[in-house]
Automatic annotation (TrEMBL):
GO terms assigned for molecular function: glycerone kinase activity
Domain DhaL: 6-167
Transmembrane segments: none
InterPro entries: DhaK_L_YcgS (IPR012737), DhaL_dom (IPR004007), DhaL_dom_sf (IPR036117), Dihydroxyacetone_Kinase (IPR050861)
The keyword Zinc-finger belongs to this UniProt entry's keyword annotation: no
GO CC list: cytosol
GO biological process, one term: glycerol catabolic process
Keywords for this protein: Kinase, Transferase
SUPFAM superfamilies registered for this protein in UniProt: DhaL-like (SSF101473)
Source species: Agromyces seonyuensis
PROSITE patterns hit by this protein: DHAL
Protein's name in the database: Dihydroxyacetone kinase subunit L
One Pfam family recorded for the sequence: Dak2
Length: 167
């Protein structure tokens, strides 16, 4: 099973719902190490993304959705988060290219590109106690799953399981 435009739009909506659900928690965590605006900033960014989803032209691809997320987050999310997440999504969109559907290997490549964008923009490496510590095992698990012939959904599940183990 590949990940097509319907999946990408649905995943984006569910991501926005998750950000909204955890907005207060993200803000509380950010108060401990920063200025306490992370939950509000991400909520504002994903609210803007959702407002633009229905304007995607016919024939859009998962890569187009990822690019829409990237450009919207960069322009609406303040602080370091906008450029950080925006770079991740922009690199992911480039990896997805114009593919109508993402198979297992392409899904793993999209995840690797997103992680590499986070590393490049944030200058973080595994062990720095950042999100890269969860992204790296997720990308490694995704690549292993793809290499074993897993479909896109199984690649995502392997990545999620590996990231959650870090939690």
């Amino acid at each position: 099973m590949g990940l097509d435009i319907t999946w990408a739009v649905d995943w984006t909506r569910r991501s926005a719902d998750t950000v909204t659900e955890h907005r207060a928690e993200l803000t509380t965590l950010d108060r401990e190490i920063g200025d306490g605006d992370h939950g509000e900033n991400l909520h504002r960014g994903f609210t803007a993304v959702i407002a633009k989803l229905d304007d995607l032209p016919a024939g859009s691809t998962p890569g187009d959705v990822l690019k829409l997320i990237a450009t919207t987050l960069i322009s609406t999310v303040g602080g370091a988060a906008g450029p950080l997440y925006g770079t991740a999504y922009l690199r992911a969109s480039t990896a997805a290219g114009s593919a109508v559907s993402l198979d297992g290997p392409l899904t793993a490549a999209v995840l690797a590109a997103a992680r590499d964008g986070i590393v490049a923009r944030g200058r973080a490496e595994p062990g720095d106690k950042t999100m890269v510590d969860a992204w790296t095992p997720a990308v490694d698990a995704a690549a292993a799953a793809a290499d074993s012939g897993a479909d896109a959904a199984a690649v995502l599940a392997a990545a999620a399981d590996a990231a959650e183990e870090i939690g």
